[in-house]
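Researcher: Here's a chain I'd like modeled. Treat it as a single chain, no partners, no ligands.
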Amino acid sequence: MYAATGFPTIARDIVTVIARIGLGAIFIAHGWQKFNEWTVAGTAESFSQMGVPLPDLAAPFSTFVELIGGALLILGALTPLVGALLAANVIGALVIVHLTPVPFVDQGGWELVAALAAGALLIAAAGPGRLSIDRLLFTGGKNARGKRSSAAESVTAGA
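Model: Modeled as a single isolated chain. Structure tokens:
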């Protein structure tokens, strides 16, 4: 079966997993940097110097949305909510810090946060694909015709 994009459904699911893993890993890396290297308090101080409103709330929000949200994105869990929160987080960074005439990240530009926001929004809107926790939780592993998916069958068979 082919999707509207022309990709076979399984290829679309595999590409979606790859995108979720790539985006999730980047978000986790940035969240881990805020948590472990800079610390949440250090991130709040940095946010204050950058003019981020309510830095004492924004720093833990950003840190844990990136860390936990990145992991949930990889798993394909709570994808619409997680994608929206991750996008909101980096759109805030874009507007407050990175909105400069120069797009390049090495010059403080907006390219990375814009790409991360676009990816998170796309996955939130399009969904995590069939190879996801959301698929198992919210459809019971069933496809549109009510049959169990092969992934769900293999998980059930192994239990």
